[in-house]
Amino acid sequence: MANHKSALKRARQSQVARLRNMARKSKAKNAVKELQSALSDGNPEKTKATFSKTVSTLQKTASKGVLHRNKTSRKISRLARAVNRAAVQ
Fold first, then answer.
1. Cα separation, 4 vs 60, whole angstroms
2. What SS3 class is residue 20?
3. What would the mean pLDDT of 19-28 be, rounded to a whole number?
4. What pLDDT is recorded for position 84?
5. Is the dihedral of CA 79, 31, 26, 55 positive or negative?
6. What is the tens place of the pLDDT at every residue in 31-79?
7. How far is CA 22 from the centre of its chain?
8. Average of pLDDT values for 15-38?
C-alpha cells in the first residue's frame, strides 16, 4: 500500500478511473451483443439502427482510451461486413 500523500491520492484516482473504464468497456460489449442479437433476428431496420448506435458507442470508448483505436476499427469493420451480408440476404 502507498505511504506518501501523493501516492495515496494517485491510488484513489486509479481506482476511480478503473471503475469508469470497466463501465465503458461493459457498455461497448453490451452494444456489440445487442447488435449480434439484432442480426440473428433478421430485422433489417432494427439492425441498421442498432449498428449506428453500436458504432457510436465503440468510437466513444476508443476516444477515451479504454479500447485501442485499431481494435475498435477492426471490430466496426467486421460488424459492418456482417450487417451488409445480412442486408443482401
1. 35
2. helix
3. 98
4. 94
5. positive
6. 999 999 999 998 888 999 999 999 999 999 999 999 999 999 999 999 9
7. 10
8. 97
Residue 45 is placed in which grid cell? Answer: 431496420
DSSP per residue over 23-85, as a string? HHHHHHHHHHHHHHHHHHHT-HHHHHHHHHHHHHHHHHHHHTTSS-HHHHHHHHHHHHHHHHH
Question: In Å, how far from its chain's centre is CA 82?
Answer: 17
Q: Rounded CA gap, 2 and 77, in Å?
A: 43
pLDDT of residue 59: 98
Q: Identify residue 60 by its one-letter amino acid code.
A: K
Q: Is the pLDDT reported for residue 21 higher than 80?
A: yes
Lookup: cell for 19: 471503475
The whole-angstrom separation of Cα 54 and Cα 75 is: 10
